[in-house]
Amino acid sequence: MDRDLLKRTLWSGAVCAVLVAVLFIWVDRPVDLAAHRLAGGFWARAAAALSCLADHDLFNAALFAAFIYLGGAVLYRGLTSGLRLALYVCLAVCVTMLLGETFKWIMGRYRPVMLFEHDLYGFSFFASKGSQHSFPSGHTFRIFSAMTALSLVFYRARFWLLGLAGLVGVSRVLVTRHYPGDVLAGAFVGVFCALWVWRIMQGPAQKPGRHYP
Question: Helix axis angle, 81-107 relative to 180-202, nearest 10°?
């Protein structure tokens, strides 16, 4: 067990929880109501296009293809350092998606559309409907897990990769599919799942930026 990473996870989780509560009480509703007024405009269309980078079906298809390729490559060449890195990225995203989707079901937060059309705002725990799966943002935890994992592999590109993840997160608010608090929580889940999978796969000695886990 990496005590330093555990400590950072717990402290960051506590800060994230406080910020999510603050956003829920004072920020989420007015921000999404403002974003709703942008519907159909340039920024909404640009955000919708950017959001496609973290589409659920796209990630599922990419993961399926990646695992097929990795399986064949490992049988042919063995588990080389490059294949191990690719496996790490795939596993980081898979763990994040499993955990994130579980949180969505447990929390059952109403999506912004429920506020606009039915004046419903808040949580209905253990919900099965997609309109109640707003927290955390799925697009955000998918893109943040992938970009964090790639940042650990391609360390010099980390600012560009994480910047792209941040833009996708913002886009989810602009298209009124999520609240800012959903995006913040999604980023937390994505980042720390990727960090924990990295640590488990490569052990306590290796630092980010080296090209093998």
Answer: 140
